[in-house]
Amino acid sequence: xxxxxxxxxxxxxxxxxxxxxxxxxxxxxxxxxxxxxxxxxxxxxxxxxxxxxxxxxxxxxxxxxxxxxxxxxxxxxxxxxxxxxxxxxxxxxxxxxxxxxxxxxxxxxxxxxxxxxxxxxxxxxxxxxxxxxxxxxxxxxxxxxxxxxxxxxxxxxxxxxxxxxxxxxxxxxxxxxxxxxxxxxxxxxxxxxxxxxxxxxxxxxxxxxxxxxxxxxxxxxxxxxxxxxxxxxxxxxxxxxxxxxxxxxxxxxxxxxxxxxxxxxxxxxxxxxxxxxxxxxxxxxxxxxxxxxxxxxxxxxxxxxxxxxxxxxxxxxxxxxxxxxxxxx
Length: 329
Fold this sequence. Notes:
Layout: H1 2-27, H2 34-45, E1 50-53, H3 60-70, E2 75-79, H4 86-90, E3 91-97, E4 103-109, E5 116-120, H5 127-130, H6 134-139, E6 141-144, E7 147-150, E8 156-161, H7 174-177, E9 182-185, H8 191-201, H9 215-225, H10 232-244, H11 253-258, E10 259-261, H12 265-281, H13 289-300, E11 305-306, H14 308-312, H15 317-326
Protein name: ATPase AAA
Organism: Litorimonas cladophorae
GO molecular function, one term: ATP binding
């Protein structure tokens, strides 16, 4: 038992140092978004996908491209537009004639066959095209003409989304939102950060990201995350958050009156993995309740919806989640 613990400690120390270097490399290109960068790395370290939400021009695309470089991942980008079709993402079969005159179908892989897929402005595509990613995100494979095709390892989707109030957007269906481990809100920079951005990005040369981690090392760290022990108090905090967020099971009257639908078991899994990943990023061997509280909004926000009466009364999902967090503080 001591040997196993020592092995985990050594591996965690090495992983934490690599992750520190990765964060520094990303920070040299993406300015003033430390929390966003940490959450994005947390999602990938947990083996999941992330949805970055914010208005255009907040470096969401730059962040994804930089993550691909720093983590050493093969990266492809798909610009989602209203005329984008599922085959443009997944690939398609074409009928070809061989040298012997025989006709047969050949599968041409789409951009989804990569390690890091950037789905840019995902909510500008039709619901049919959005749903093309459902199987890929959950099962790490796609089925074309009845034939399954495995995706590369690791496989992650980092999608950017414009606020749904903007023109030409289609809300993501609940089933697809649930596939995203975290929803990461990208906000406007502070005054000092914006001043720094202006000075550092309008010169004769731009900063370039450097590779800090290999795909093999990333897969090893993802396996390490699942080995980190979770205390009983952290487990109870996760269960309290998730179960009390469901109106049918909640012990909180305001949740029962305001929430239309709440998170499923996948939210608890996301909180468990993301809390472990956050601990590893900080160089700790096990997550704490503080990790659960810090990740409650990114994990739950896109997995809950208020009813009409609550929205009309000016309530928000964020305030409901804060109420849930108050029970375990």
